[in-house]
Fold:
Amino acid sequence: MGTKEIRISGFGGQGVVLSGLILGQAASIYDNGFSALTQSYGPEARGGSCTAEVLISDEPIGYPYVQSPHILIILSQEAYNKYSDGLPADALMVIDPDLVKPNPSQKPAPLSIPATRMARDMGRTVVANIIMLGFLAAVSDVVSAEALKKSVLTSVPKGTEEFNTKAFETGYNYGLEHGSKGKVTHG
Amino acid sequence: MGTKEIRISGFGGQGVVLSGLILGQAASIYDNGFSALTQSYGPEARGGSCTAEVLISDEPIGYPYVQSPHILIILSQEAYNKYSDGLPADALMVIDPDLVKPNPSQKPAPLSIPATRMARDMGRTVVANIIMLGFLAAVSDVVSAEALKKSVLTSVPKGTEEFNTKAFETGYNYGLEHGSKGKVTHG
Structure:
C-alpha cells in the first residue's frame, strides 16, 4: 500500500496528538503495519497550535514527516490557512465547520463534520476527536474501521469505553450519511 | 544536545505507548524540542509484546528508530532478553524487578523500581507507567522533571490529575532515594 501520510492540526486541548496515537496504533497493532508519530507545538502550550503527523506503512518508515499528505484533519482556521495550499489532487481534508471556514474555491473541497458541536450535544466535548476518528473510518480506507475502533477502546480511560464507542459510532454514521468512502464531496 | 533515543518495551496493557507519547510530548511541548514516536507490537495485540521508541532532539528528526539507546525502560523478561545485549556503556536501563530478572553480570547494571507493585499498593495498577516516568525524571536528564510532569497531567483523564501527580511523585521520590541522577547503580 506504500506509505499513507496523515496530518492532524488544531490547537492544544483538542486531542490532536492522542488522535494521531490512536491512528498509528490502529495501523500497527491491528492492521499489522508500521507507524510513526511526530508532534509539534506552537509557542503556547495550551491554546497554541498543535500538529501531529502520522505515517502508516506496511514497512518500516524511514522519514517520519508528512511530505505529501493523503489525509488532513484540520481543526482551526490557523491550521487551515497554513496547510490548505498546494495539496495533492487526491488529498482528503476533513474539517470541523464550526472551527474552520474553507475557501469556497478550494479543490478538492473538504469534507466536514461538526464534531465539537456533536460532542457538546453528547455532554462531553472531550470526545470530539473520537467522533472525528469515527467519521474518518467511514470516509477513508487509511485504516480499517474495526482496527480504529479497537485502538480507540484501548486508548481511552477504563470505564469510558461505552461512551467512546457511542462517540465513534456517531462519527462513523455521520460519515456514512454525509461523506462517501474514497470520494470527496462538498463540505 | 543531539538526539536522545529511548526504548520502552513490555507487553500490551502496561501503558508502553502512552509512556512514549508523554515523554515525546514533554520534550516537544515544554522543552521546545522535537520528538518522534514509533510503536511495534508482537503477534498478540493484548498481552503480546509491545515496544515504543521515542527520539528527542533539538532539531527535526530524520530517522525515527532507536539505533543506539540512551535509555531503556524494560517491563518484561522477553523485552529484557531481546534488548539487553550490546548496549552502549552509557546506556541507562530501568527495570521493574518483579517483571524482569536481569543477568547479574550485566554492565551497566540496571536501575530498578517495582512500579507495578507500587501502583497496586496505591490501589490502581494502571498508574505503574506514571510511577516509572517519575522515577525516570529523577534519575535521568533526558527531559526536565517539570516538563514531564506537565505532560503527564495533560495526557491523563480529567479528574485523575491529583492521583497521577501522586503517582509521578511517588516514582520521583523513589528515584531520588534509590537512583542517582546520571549515574548507574545496582538494580
Summary: Strands of chain A lie at 4-11, 34-41, 49-57, 71-74, 92-95, 111-112. The mean pLDDT of chain A is 89.
